[in-house]
Amino acid sequence: MLTGIYGLLSACFFVVLDAVDVAFTEASVGAGISGLLMLAAITITGRKEAPKRHKPFLALFVVLVTGSMLIYGTLDMPYFGDPEAPVHQHVAPRYIHDSMEEVGVPNIVTSVLGSYRAFDTLGEVAVIFTAGIGVLSLLSLPRRRKKIKSEEATEEQMHERHMVVRIVSKALIPFILLFALYVQFHGDFGPGGGFQAGVIFAAAIILYTMLFGLDTAKKVFNPALIQLLAAVGLLLYACVGVVSMLNGANFLDYNVLADDPVSGQHIGILLIELGVGITVASVMLSIFFNFDGRRQAQAEIQAEKQQSEQEQKLKGEQDVSRTL
Amino acid sequence: MFLGLYNYWIVVLLMMIGFYIVIAHGNLVKKLVGLTIFQTSVFIFYITVGMVERGSAPIIAEGISDYSNPLPHVLILTAIVVGIATTALGLALVIRIKEAYGCVEEDEIQKQDQLSEDES
Amino acid sequence: MNLVIEIISGLSLLIGCFLCLSGGVGMLRFPDFYTRMHAVSVTDTLGACLVLFGLMLQSPNGLVLIKLILILLCTLFINPSASHALAKAALRNGLLPLEGKPDNQGGNKPSKL
Amino acid sequence: MLAAATIAILVVMLLAIIRCIVGPTLYDRILAFNMFGTKSILLISVLGFLMGRPEFLDIALVYALINFISVIGVLRYSDSAEFKVAPYKPHSTKEGEE
Lengths: 324, 120, 113, 98
Fold this sequence. Notes:
The complex is a heterotetramer of chains A (324), B (120), C (113) and D (98). Chain A is mainly alpha-helical. Chain A has helices at 2-16, 20-45, 57-74, 92-102, 108-116, 118-139, 149-161, 163-186, 194-212, 214-220, 223-246, 261-323. Chain A has 2 domains: 1-45; 107-140 and 155-305, no CATH class. Chain A contains 12 helices and no strands. Chain A is globular and about 95 Å long. The model of chain A has no long low-confidence stretch (mean pLDDT 78). Chain B has a single domain (2-51, 68-119), classed as Helix Hairpins (Orthogonal Bundle). Helices cover 73% and strands 0% of the residues of chain B. In chain B, helix 1 (6-24) packs antiparallel against helix 2 and helix 2 (28-50) runs antiparallel to helix 3 (70-101). Chain B is elongated, with a radius of gyration of 21 Å. The termini of chain B are far apart. The model of chain B has no long low-confidence stretch (mean pLDDT 81). Chain C is an all-alpha fold. Chain C has one domain. The termini of chain C are far apart. The A-C interface holds A 161-162, 164-165, 168, 171-172 and C 74, 77-78, 81-82, 84-85, 88-89, 92.
């Protein structure tokens, strides 16, 4: 539970430090999805922790020694907020002063992310995609044939219980989706971009899943389609690079995508942000679906076990009474 | 004199909290939580390094001349999303371990491994 | 005119902050979950509305105003419904309200529902 | 005025964190978390005005939405496991209570 607060707090912190884009990401990721995934994992693995066997003195000692060494190391670092620090001397001035002429996007973070360091971002998106594949291969379940009755009962339960929340969410979900699109396409001018938009989009669908049940959500958002989309996003990103190569420039050099360099850059950034958004949203969604599917499957197994135990108990009692 | 360095101390403190959790707790989920805290401390480190006094958010607007360094922001922005994806992968591994061993405590898992090795 | 707007916005900010603070104190001091929830959810919504209203009066252009209105609408919708869901879930999971003392006027009646 | 508002909101956030750590039940914590979220929305909007860059409002809006989602998520997951209520038979416990 405190992870959520932790995410919020660090996001506030980033706002204070002028890192709007980072705060945006942390707000949507740290406060929402990461906490939810942790919770889902905890519900599966059980809440209780085994008591510790050995005393933590050794660990404490190691931590203290490392910490003091690190603090000793900080004595040589530049002061907080010092404009003369080495970080601000290397490429940052160029980004700040020239990006408006070269890329034509007011949000420097977006222009660096999408244009100057596009290759790096491609790698990051590939990492996200790979992580998504990893989760899928670890957790995906074979398709179930029969529907278990207890599940339907729960759906009804959810409906009865969270009527107010449901109706409010019904009104809210389209709004969240619209807002995600706004973040996606307004990322050039304000804080935002593909990463944030993808997470917000996924969060909206996660809200739908939580309120209307996993099976309903899977009917609406087909898991196979989502997995396909994850790959499509990454491919879109890479294709932009290939197209710019075919036009005679370097990989991911958008200057040649249109007649003049600035509008070429605009098109390139828009396209790759779209690719990033699609990949992030679909990877997050498929991760969540798999976690939730596991949880549900486990709960069903437990319920079945309990039922069979009860039946056995009943049978045993009947046997006892018969013998009596 | 050293007061200008307090941001690094906060980072070190957070990092050590995360580190301690990773070392001292046997529960694998807790270990992942510790790793997340560790990760966030690195994020904060980058952002504080990129901060400039009297600077403003790096979105070009009229009448503002000082901006923070956008480079760390870019790095961390991607790192956060990648971080959640990798954390999810770790959690997935933990779930599989739970299904295979029936627990998520480090000692127990080692004990069970030992037992199965002895048998074979 | 400008001064009047300034004063109104300052006042609403002040009242909003006061409400938030009282909600925070109530959250810390009240004896059980349901009373805390009452303290928080009531003051939270009104306090947030007032603060946002105060900010709205100071907004420099239309886009900011629209965003503030959106935030206001969101809080107005979300806060009560989240509180509602929370209270319902708590009650359903067997968290009983603290019952009044016998010598109180509320008597022995359990304050359920 | 804005600075005063910021300080007041920070104090409330501190109180919420205290309740979140102390909170005897899970629901107290969720409540504190919800309150914390609302307060951070306010804090971000006020800070945006204080710094003269109202672009921050986008973040506040995201908070408002994400906060709701995480509260609902916590409620959903807490239903099934934390309280050891039999996972998919909530009615039985309720009737047991009454």
